[in-house]
């Protein structure tokens, strides 16, 4: 009961309730655009939760995590272009491809450490990026317009239904990753982050645990890519650029590294600042809104200096 009274628990509960009823609120106040913003927040939160699994709990800084956005999205897009519209086929195939790629990248990159791990994950992401750019039959650099997946019971063309599906998947992702982080597996992963040599000496299979963590992160990253492709009915190589990977890292750091709901806090703050800074800068000077990151950068520096645990650290109970 004491835990439920903590500021972080209260804010998290209120935030989840707000997100759960967002379609109803946007309809009541005739602010349909906010539903699109909310959908992006939920989808990016799923991707950030998957990155937090290896970055927050495992201490593995991947600078190519957005590749799973593109892999999941392009798997759906290519199947759609070939006439396969069923989500019951598209989604499992997209997840299988994401898992296969995560296994390959993890098996190779985990043999390195530090900046070498960062550069290898970036190199693999750029490989996928340029591969997608060269797929002239599927739009190349221009991307590919697709039809949304069909399930029969759920109409993904209905924005409210699609949002609730994304929100349900986010809740499932948060629950699964939270349970995993507090399991024996999660403790080994976090122990390896603190002292890899000691965990190895104790007999724990550190490499295998990290590889499984990378595979799980890749699967959820691919899921986010599937949802992102269906959200805009469009896929392009830009989905997997290094800039998107950087945005994911910023979201995780902004929310709180290694905190279960940290990626959700980070995504909400990230997209809220984007939506607020753009019109504010345009008011100061027409066209400045396009460069909203210039104003966002100093805010991120302030967070790094005075809230080193991200937004989650600001919600801790004070003694």
Task: Describe it.
With 319 residues, the chain is mainly alpha-helical. 70% of the residues lie in helices and 1% in strands. The chain has 14 helices and two strands; from the N terminus they run ααααααβααααβαααα. The chain has helices at residues 7-20, 22-28, 32-55, 67-81, 87-109, 115-133, 159-181, 184-194, 196-201, 206-232, 242-255, 262-284, 293-306, 311-314; strands at 144-145, 234-235. The protein has a two-stranded antiparallel sheet with strand order 1-2. The longest helix has 27 residues, at 206-232. It is globular, with a radius of gyration of 20 Å. The relative contact order is 0.17.
Concise description?
The protein is mostly helical and 319 residues long.
How does the major sheet shape up? 2 strands, antiparallel
What is the approximate shape?
Answer: globular
Beta content: under 5%
The percentage helix is: over 70%
Look at the helices and sheets and give the structural class. mainly alpha
Average of the residue pLDDT scores: 89
- The H-and-E topology, N to C, reads as HHHHHHEHHHHEHHHH
Q: What is the CA-CA span between the terminal residues?
A: 17 Å
The total of beta strands comes to: 2
- Low confidence ranges: none
CA gyration radius, whole angstroms:
20 Å
Number of helices: 14
Going across the major beta sheet, what is the strand order?
A: 1-2
Topology:
Elements lengths: L6 H14 L1 H7 L3 H24 L11 H15 L5 H23 L5 H19 L10 E2 L13 H23 L2 H11 L1 H6 L4 H27 L1 E2 L6 H14 L6 H23 L8 H14 L4 H4 L5
Antiparallel strand pairs: 1-2
Helix pairs in contact: 2-3, 3-7, 3-10, 3-11, 3-12, 4-5, 4-6, 4-10, 5-10, 8-10, 11-12
